[in-house]
Write a structure and sequence with these properties.
Length: about 150
């Protein structure tokens, strides 16, 4: 009996996940845009797949670039998509620790830090045993809000 799982026996959703990862690491090189496009397919085809949505939010972070004073330069459309995805997840699951965590990082800049502070406080409370979660509010509270 073979323990191999054949691609054609997977569900469409599972095939998309496999395809996304294959595209990300195609021939030993990182191909973020292909990975992002496949995750966007999953996002549109399976709107309740919060974990795929979070993979998309996370990979979009990797496209940011450092800017003056340590803040990140983001593509406004990517950031808007990240916010939309995270709001959607938090609407259906207000205590989703991954969504809360990424929401804080997406807003880890002076112009939107105050907007994310309630989620930072909530995240530190619901993940109280995580040292990382305990330090997350400092990402926002240490920013000078003008």
């Amino acid at each position: 009996m073979s323990s191999k799982i054949h691609f054609e026996n997977l569900t469409q959703r599972e095939q998309l996940y496999v395809t996304a990862v294959r595209k990300l690491f195609d021939q030993g090189k990182l191909h973020k845009d292909d990975y992002i496009n496949t995750l966007k397919q999953i996002y549109h085809l399976y709107p309740t797949d919060n974990e795929a949505d979070l993979f998309l939010v996370c990979i979009l972070f990797s496209k940011t670039q450092p800017e003056i004073r340590g803040y990140l330069r983001r593509n406004p459309k990517d950031r808007e998509l990240q916010i939309d995805i995270l709001k959607m997840i938090l609407k259906s699951n207000p205590n989703h620790s991954g969504a809360l965590h990424y929401f804080i990082h997406v807003n880890d800049e002076p112009k939107s830090a105050l907007y994310a502070l309630p989620n930072a406080i909530k995240y530190s409370r619901i993940a109280s045993s995580s040292l990382h979660a305990q330090h997350i509010p400092t990402h926002l509270s240490s920013i000078r809000i003008i």
